[in-house]
Amino acid sequence: MAPRAIFVGAPGSGKSTVGRRVAERLNVPFLDTDQAIEARAGMSVADIFINQGEPEFRALEESVVAEAIATSTGIVSLGGGALLSDATRNLVRDCTVIWLQVTAGDAASRVGMTGSRPLLLGNVRGTMMKLLEERTPLYEEVADLVVDTSGRPVRAIADDVTSWLENAA
């Protein structure tokens, strides 16, 4: 058993929004691993970072992602940094992975100045540029489909992904 597709990409790329829309269109379940982490930990991602630190968050994330990949038959949206884990990258290699690509500027404007994304506090655009520089090779490494989301409406992105998944089946 494997998910129908796994969405990866930077914060603000649309993984949760587009993933949920694609899952509805395909009539399959949707799972956002950040929400699953929050449910398991009983606190927000930001609070995990503050109270337990990034290493603890990444360990929990790795566990939640492994469980999601083992049990989901639908669409799974990974947190933007989930692919920092070698174990996670190895797990997704056997899955259909969709990389929602976004520019640093578009991502920064979508996520704004919110405390819910602890790695982006401060200079959002500058931090996003650094995250993209670090993570783009990881997204490229595992992606089966790359969809540029910059400046595009959710509906159009979901149309492209749904069509691709239906044709790939």
Describe the overall structure:
It is built from eight helices and five strands, in the order E-H-E-H-H-H-E-H-E-H-H-E-H. The longest helix has 19 residues, at 124-142. The protein has helices at 15-26, 33-41, 45-52, 54-71, 86-92, 104-111, 124-142, 154-168, and strands spanning 5-8, 30-32, 75-77, 97-101, 145-148. The protein has one domain: 3-Layer(aba) Sandwich (Rossmann fold). The radius of gyration is 15 Å and the shape is globular. It is an alpha/beta fold. Helices cover 57% and strands 11% of the residues.
Give a brief rundown of this model.
By secondary structure, this protein is α/β, with parallel strands linked by helices. The chain is built from eight helices and five strands; from the N terminus they run βαβαααβαβααβα. Helices cover 57% and strands 11% of the residues.
